[in-house]
């Protein structure tokens, strides 16, 4: 009878350890990458680079954001980030520019956010 009790206690403890570690680990993290392309013609995004230049250099007054922001207004944050990332990378060849900062600055001006985990690569 005592051996049955020990076996039951051992089973309950081992299940508690197994399920406790699963809960502590949290939900599984996604391992696949999502590929999103920019639905806007890249040449049109040159307007956004002009806005970025105005924001990075000291200007008097607020630079006009409408041409750029209206281009990306209908996009979700991820699409907007991909489009602006592509435009920034195409324009800064050979120029030492902080791409994540520039991307964040442009998205913020246009009331968009950098999606969590997004990297302009």
TrEMBL record:
CDD domains listed in its UniProt record: HPS_like
Pfam family, one: Hydrophob_seed
Bifunctional inhibitor/plant lipid transfer protein/seed storage helical domain residues: 38-120
Keyword field contains Repeat: no
Name the record gives this protein: Lipid transfer protein EARLI 1-like
Matching InterPro entries: Bifun_inhib/LTP/seed_sf (IPR036312), Bifunc_inhib/LTP/seed_store (IPR016140), Hydrophob_seed_dom (IPR027923), Plant_LTP/defense-related (IPR051636)
Homology family: Belongs to the plant LTP family. PEARLI1 subfamily.
Signal peptide range: 1-25
Keyword Membrane applies: no
Keyword vocabulary terms for this entry: Signal
Species of origin: Rhodamnia argentea
PANTHER family documented for this protein: PTHR31731
């Amino acid at each position: 009878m005592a051996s049955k009790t020990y076996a039951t206690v051992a089973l309950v403890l081992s299940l508690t350890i197994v399920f406790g570690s699963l809960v502590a680990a949290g939900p599984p993290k996604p391992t696949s990458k999502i590929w999103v392309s920019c639905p806007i013609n890249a040449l049109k995004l040159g307007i956004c680079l002009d806005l970025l230049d105005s924001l990075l250099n000291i200007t008097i007054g607020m630079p006009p954001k409408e041409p750029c922001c209206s281009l990306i207004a209908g996009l979700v944050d991820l699409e907007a980030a991909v489009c602006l990332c592509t435009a920034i990378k195409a324009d800064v060849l050979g120029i030492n520019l902080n791409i994540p900062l520039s991307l964040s600055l442009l998205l913020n001006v246009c009331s968009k956010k950098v999606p969590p985990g997004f990297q302009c690569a």
